[in-house]
Amino acid sequence: ALQKNPKSYATWQHRKWVVAHKNLVDLKHELALCQMLLAVDERNFHCWSYRRYVVKLSETDPEDELEFTTEKILQNFSNYSSWHYRSALLPEVNKVTTLDELIKGDQGDAEKDEGKSKEQILPLHVLDQEFKLVKEAFFTEPEDQSSWLYHSWLMSHLTRGEDKFGATEVDKHVEEEITTCQEILEIEPDCKWPLLTLARLFELQARRASAGETKQQLKGKVKDLYNKLATLDVMRKGYYRDAAAAL
Q: Do the Cβ atoms of 19 and 27 come closer than 8 Å?
């Protein structure tokens, strides 16, 4: 059935039901099947979902899966499923990042029981690696939204980790990402995604800036970018105008 229609909802759901009976199925064979089908169509989200299910059952090493997503992304940067899977794997692979966190593990469990645990933030060196990977995607396919959405997820980790990284480090990384967007726009001046990302980065800088001329200048840049986007992306002009008005 999958040979005739590799995106059949019913077939994939039935296969999940069969695989749930571990003693009847070779899970390594199922992973090999996924690899074969994703080689034909690396964006088959049915297959990606099934692979995640099999990986959980087989207790496959998350680092192996992370390497698999790297391979698939480098084959085709326009692969939302692979970027999304990567965002789920990275927190799993980086559960403990320092000796201090390892020593505090028991305390962390206690806090979790009390509902006080904090959301995990990726380590800075991991974010640096991911920013480098996503930058390759930007310059290869700047119009593709999947890598830009992944970049937004990385930025959320960067800003939420300010207590851990320090304000200076966060500011430096924001400036680096602004430079990346500006470099892309020198080549593709009317490309939506770097324009939108640049607007949001300037907006972030404006929120972080103390009140004064610099803050107003940054807001002015943001409004100019939203106005340009409203002319380039007419179907969403209302969104851009509302965003500019909310500054």
A: yes
